Amino acid sequence: MPLKQSTNIPNNEELQATVARLGQEMQGMQETTLRMDQQMTDMKLMLEQLVKTQSNKGPTVDDHSSYGTGGAANPHPRGNFSGNPYVNLEGFGGFDDNRRLGNNHRIHFPRADFPQFDGSNPFVWVSKCVSYFEIFQIPDCYKTHMATLHFLEEALEWYEGFKEDCPNPQWPMLVEEVLDRFQSYNTSNPVGEFKRVQQTGKVLDYIRQFERAKSRLMKETKIRSTVFFIQGFIEGLKEEIRHAVEVLDPISLNQAFYFVRKAELNLEGVDRRNRNWVKPPVYQPTTQPVKTIPFQDKKLLQLPPTKPAVLPPPNFNTMSRDQMRQLGLCFYCGKKYSQGHKCQKRRLLMLEAMEIEEDVSVFDLPVSEDASDHSKTPVIEHGDISMCLPHDQQGSQSLKFKGYIQNKPILALIDSGSTHSFIHPSIISSVQLQTMPATSMIVKTASGSQLISDQKCDGLQFQLQNHNFTGNLRVLEDQGYDIILGMDWIAKMGPMVIDCDKRCVQLTVDGQNILLQVQHEQAEVQLCEANINASQEWGKGHEVIIAHLFLSEEANSSLPQPAKHILPELNEVVQQYTQVFDEPNSLPPIRVLDHSIPLKPETQPINLRPYRFSHFQKLEIEKIIEELLHSGYIRPSSSPFASPILLVRKKDNSWRLCVDYRQLNDITVKNKFPIPIIDDLLDELKGATIFSKIDLKAGYHQIRMHASDIYKTAFRTHLGHYEFTVMPFGLTNAPATFQALMNLIFKPHLRKFILVFFDDIFIYSQSIEDHVKHLAIALQILKDNQLFAKLSKCEIGTNKVEYLGHLISQEGVATDPSKIEAMVNWPIPKSVKQLRGFLGLTDYYRKSIQGYGVIVRPLTELLKKDAFQWSQEASLAFTNLKEAMTKAPVLTLPDFNKPFTIETDASQSGIGAVLMQEKRPLAFFSKGLGIKNQSLSTYEKELLALVSAVQKWRHYLLGCSFVIRTDHISLKHLLEQRINTSMQHKSLSKLLGLNYTIEYKKGSTNLVADALSRRDVEECHNSELCVIPEIIPQWVVEL
């Protein structure tokens, strides 16, 4: 029976495909096996090399063997494989080859444990880790593992939770997280902590406290000044140590630490000697004859008998303040404290003990060991100087005289306590004197310091009070005088008589008696700012007095204000007219323009009760009334009129008495005299480079009241009833009267070099020569009309002056920073009245602000009836207006000999324009559009901007040709277009009589005008409700 063929046997093609696939897999396995064999061979070679190196050369550190990526952590955290105390860095793959000394030399480091971290002192731990990584050249990929391997206790618990959020943190991230988690925050001020460090015990304890405070200060601030740290260290010392260290003037902290330790040892030695002090036995004369010793030197001075020694007073500086308070002692001098106690002035005392020794040794100097020849030993002289201090610290009893060396003024001191005579090196260099080398001399000063003099100047000729002298002087630095004449010079002068009471010296020179008299000189005081280092000034020879100035309003009101600095040329003019700046001693003269008060018909006298005042205000009122009565400005009254008074504080914090004339002003006929427009006054200043401003003294009081109207000015006080004989403040027509008088007397010179706005007289010129003439003319007019000015409030001959709220200079007109500061600090208005006040203040500078009208429109909308509701839009406008005020540019002054240019633009929300000359702005103009004008077409808006700008500055443009630039090209042909609308009729009628040319300017280049009109366009586009205007012709309506 034949076998049945199985259907599962594959055919030849399938079998071949399977064999091919298996062959490929076998080939891949063979390649993998070869690669693994190669890796095993490499590892075997590395292990053999490692074993060989350990057996022959000792253990080494390998970054791959010490801290593998896949194996367990190295159980030897010291960085080596055995107990060998040194680490061999030869063959270390990550180490810099530059650290190797050669092929056969290796650098060995001591064994170092990796720092462990338990959560305390994180800064110290991080610093140690960084040092460890740098020394052993640990790769970045191992730093985090090594650090966290040595976490203990709290740090380990924290890291277990931290790695759940961040499994593999890098080393910088780990450092940041550790410091944020474990650093202890000190909320105290590091500077204040540094300054509070004081010495209370031993010097070493104080140095440790100082170093800790200094370390924190350097970490948390940028203070790195060595002088600052030295001064802070010295100021914290105890007083007895501080004085000793200040004299030595250390230049580094280490030097200061050394000086302080030496000073403490010296004080401890003095204290031990004082404790061991025993009263000396009373001297008993002996009956034995004293053996005399013949002295070769007959000139030896006899020493005065010594006084019994006195125990030093107790050192109060070592006591705490609580102890001193319990004992009732002064904190500063240690004396008994009582009410009215004054500390005794500290003095500089010097105690010098002299001993006679058989062997006098040379001053200790370092000498070479091989210097055996006595001829090589330096010869050193010794000298003393008792007054080597700045001359302003010597008091008034020193013998100092003024003189000359080759016509150079000098200050000389005759000092009997100095063994030699000295001259300062600055005198040598200034008069170019010849010096020669001299034997080195060590000069000991009264303060204990030692100076070296190795130069001399023989045969120096000098003059003292017109008498000629000659002397041999040594050159010495750091002395307080130009010349010090010591005992060597005094001995050559012969007999000398010193009268200490009259402070004169009488001596004989070449048989002629000469008398030198000490001249009394006034000490010169120079004010220094507080940041100047006091010790540095003292080191320069200056006496330093530290003072605190506290300003009192009551005291400040009575202080005389000094006049400002005046140029010499103009000061001569001011000196010629000093009468103008004197205090008036009589009433003003009767003039044509004496002030009168015309009343409305059928009015009754004003009679109001006085206001109540506090006690101190009554004292001020009494003082002011007394002054006004003494000057004749007021007099007692019996008038039926009576108005209450007010006290108003002036800028200098003094008080001005004002009368509340509001009721009287209501029944007064108003004087319509024109008051100058400020912008018109500023337009006259083009080309001026030097300015002066004269402010009249109580200007209103320099005009008399008309005799028939004096009784109407009556006022009441708690002292009685008075009336003014001069024009008072507060009357409605007083500004008009004053301006009329100023215009009358200065009429020939107005707009030429003088401007007048009430009591502010402004003089401007193009050169200093012209200004001298103009200032003299103005002062002469004031003198002729018996008008007085206040010099302290005047500004004479400056190139920048504040006038009418503007800063005037050669560059142009700028806003007054003090006014801008008031606007910036203005609080958010809570009512319409407060908002009007703010807008009134800012409107004063609208000429200088780009886009003022557009910016302020949300605020002006709130002024409408029942519309005040503060919103986010109003807050934004309020903030933008403040910001615009701080960025106001300097506007140039108009020159009417040059053409003007107007650039205009319009947007959906407003129109804007700028007036320019030579590409510099003179004024800005902007205006927000209402709903009606917002519906106009683009052509009509651009035409409205053009016409509005021309109308705004018409007074500049009349009589001259000017250019109008717009970014609407159709307006360029305005004069050639056919007139179809009423708006075109009105616009062209307003432009009649003007000589202008319209030019097209691309919108992208018309930046200023575009910014003025589009300030708030973005806000308009982003509003939720947009109105689409629909224009319906009239004929459609009629149909």
Q: Could you walk me through the main structural features you see in this protein, from its secondary elements to its overall organization?
A:
A hairpin with a 3-residue loop joins β24 (806-809) and β25 (813-815). Helix content is 34%, strand content 16%. It contains 33 helices and 30 strands. It has 1039 residues and is an alpha+beta fold. It is extended, with a radius of gyration of 48 Å. The chain has seven domains: 17-49; 58-182, no CATH class; 190-273; 379-485, Beta Barrel (Cathepsin D, subunit A, domain 1); 568-810, HIV Type 1 Reverse Transcriptase, Chain A, domain 1; 812-890, Alpha-Beta Plaits (2-Layer Sandwich), CATH 3.30.70; 892-1014, Nucleotidyltransferase, domain 5 (2-Layer Sandwich), CATH 3.30.420.10. The protein starts with 11 loop residues before the first helix and ends with a helix. Residues 1-7, 57-105, 277-314, 346-380, 387-395, 551-563 and 1015-1039 have low confidence and may be disordered. A six-stranded mixed β-barrel has the order 4-5-10-6-9-8. 22% of the residues are buried. Keywords: DNA integration, Endonuclease, Hydrolase, Magnesium, Multifunctional enzyme, Nuclease, Nucleotidyltransferase, Protease, RNA-binding, RNA-directed DNA polymerase, Transferase. It comes from Rhynchospora tenuis. Residues 629-808 form the Reverse transcriptase domain. This is Reverse transcriptase domain-containing protein. GO terms for molecular function: aspartic-type endopeptidase activity; endonuclease activity; RNA binding; RNA-directed DNA polymerase activity.
